[in-house]
Amino acid sequence: MPEGPSIVLLREAAAKFKGKTVREVSGNSTLDLACLQGRRVRAVRSWGKHFLLEFSHVTLRIHLMMFGSWRIDERKETPAWVSLRFDNGELNFYTCSVKLIARPLDEVYDWRSDVMSDLWDPSLARRRLKSMPDVLVCDALLDQTLFSGVGNIIKNEVLFRIRVHPANHVGDVPPRKLAELVRQAREYSFDFLEWKRGFELKKRWQVHTRRTCPRCGGLVSKVHMGTTHRRTFFCPVCQIDYRVLPLPPAAKKRTRARSAAQRGAGKVVR
């Protein structure tokens, strides 16, 4: 699934269509996009994993999902789901989710949660994290209301950078580590962007899809973890599991409350 930095690259490449008029609309999308023909693009924007073409009356939203792709001024052999032709080129999308947004974008999106945005608000992310102590950190990083644009690669690499085991609950992680998680969610995203521009992203991965840890030389674990069951790569030696360390009183209280709730729900507690 293309992550936020990849959508920024798409936004930059498609910027040439700002102010241009759509001359022709075609594609296999079941959505009726005829309303875009003859309309001028007011802005080319992005929010997290969403690519946005803003017109005066509506916004075209493209989500590339797991296997989506795009082409500018060229086409793949397979038919496009959405194809927009302008006087200065064409924009094609494949295997994507397509939606028309009628409301103003400022009413739809909270730009403060986009890790690539100039309006990113780390204080807001920290406050929201503190309000979800029972959520796994691997799930928290993929929560688009907290870290819009963060995907599975960034999740794995950020947790390795800050040496936090992905199975920790947010409430069990020390505050300084949570602050580091918030900071690195943005910093790694911009590193991702520069490495992808330089065609060197994969060779920069430290733990994602790797077999051995570059720090200790031990085996990297691969588990489908969290509510999304996404592939999670981590070093069981270098990344701290705070669940097996002595907990401060407040954390012990949260753990007991969580266990009691699970027992009440009929779950087996080990």
For this entry, give a set of tags.
270 residues, alpha+beta, elongated, Helicase, Ruva Protein, domain 3, 10 strands, 4-stranded antiparallel sheet, 18% strand, 30% helix, N-terminal domain of MutM-like DNA repair proteins
CA-atom Rg in angstroms: 21 Å
Query: Helix share of residues?
Result: 25-40%
Number of strands: 10
What number of domains? 2
CATH architecture of the largest domain: Orthogonal Bundle
For the largest beta sheet, what order do the strands appear in spatially? Answer: 1-6-7-5
CATH topology name of the largest domain, in short, is: Helicase, Ruva Protein, domain 3
**What proportion of the residues form beta strands (DSSP E)?**
15-25%
Number of helices: 8
Which term fits the overall shape?
A: elongated
CATH C-level class of the largest domain: Mainly Alpha
**End-to-end Cα distance:** 34 Å
The average pLDDT is 92
- How can the largest sheet be summarized? 4 strands, antiparallel
Order of helices and strands: HEEEEEEEEHHHHHHEEH
Query: Which spans have pLDDT < 50 for at least 5 consecutive residues?
Result: 265-270
Helix-strand makeup class: alpha+beta
Domain FPG-type: 206-240
Keywords: DNA damage, DNA repair, DNA-binding, Endonuclease, Glycosidase, Hydrolase, Lyase, Metal-binding, Multifunctional enzyme, Nuclease, Zinc, Zinc-finger
Pfam family, one: H2TH
Protein name: Endonuclease
